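User: Now give one protein:

AI:
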Amino acid sequence: MIELKTNQLQAFLQESFGPKARLLGISEIGKPGEQGVKQFGYGKPVLVSYEIDGEPQEAVLSTMRGDKYGHQFYWDRAAILMFQHETSGGLEKHARSLALGYIDQDDALHPVRDVQEFFLLVEKLPGYDYYRDLERIMAGDFRPSDVDQVREFARWMARIHSRRLDDPHLYYRRIRNLIGSDECVLGLVDEAYPQGYEDYPPERFQALERRLIDWRWKLKRYAHRLAEVHGDFHPWNVLIDERGGFRVLDRSRGEWGEPAGDVASMAMNYLLFGILDDHPDAPDATPRLSGPFRQLFEVLFEEYLEATGDREILEVIAPFFVFRCLVVASPEWYPNHPPAVRRSLFEFMERVLAEDVFDPTCVNKYLVGSC
């Protein structure tokens, strides 16, 4: 709970409306005349009486209560309050928003003025994008250090995933978002593929979505797995430094989620580069995963399972593979895939959904039907 102090509110009024603004009083809605309110809680509105140039004014100061309906974090609530501030004045008969503000760690109030867009300033890290190592391997230069690097990735994921949170509703939210978010499965189906796409026509997308609903209900039993995650751990978000160490960029989709999402994200790129490297020339042939990229794929799972003991991940990873497959198979984002590669990715995502438990030691059965 926040303690709303009159001197802090006075400073906020002057910063928002100028030096001639003066606080007259604050009280709970429906209880005028009280001069102080302690433990100003989220979602609890407060009546603010003030004057500007001697002209009496009243306003309601409110925040938004966190809840399980997609409002667990302050940035969730901020997005809604920003929307209300931006649009309420344009609706006939709607109360106008007078100021948009935030409360800092010392319970001080600060206005946000004339926002057009937000930005982020992030430290510049040394190193090169990890995907360049995968391109080097495709060119025939596979090194023992490449295997060591994958083991480091797996151990890093094991460390961050060891931090768990008991919040079933947040886990349900993450699974809902995986399937229904604009950035995830349904968003990709609608926006990353042309309407009436011949290589994956609407009836296949519909069948895929129906199967994912079954998986959503299956995963509701795994809410105990909620863990710290990166959320978008792939080779374009990893920097390798001159000593072979790595740093990560662009954490996405929240602090907590299903660990399988991180593992599937990196593993899918070994599969993609592998079948790009090994696809046959015959138009009807299907690529297999072999050579260095199969080794990296298997090492990632081997090391992660050894470090975590989490074989349960193999029971939940399939829908996360579907998400990543839809990304790397997209003709919008990856327009130069040979037809056999794109067809193979589609086969992979359908076959992993058809099995209750994923087998990382036999990945080719999801591509060609046999190990």
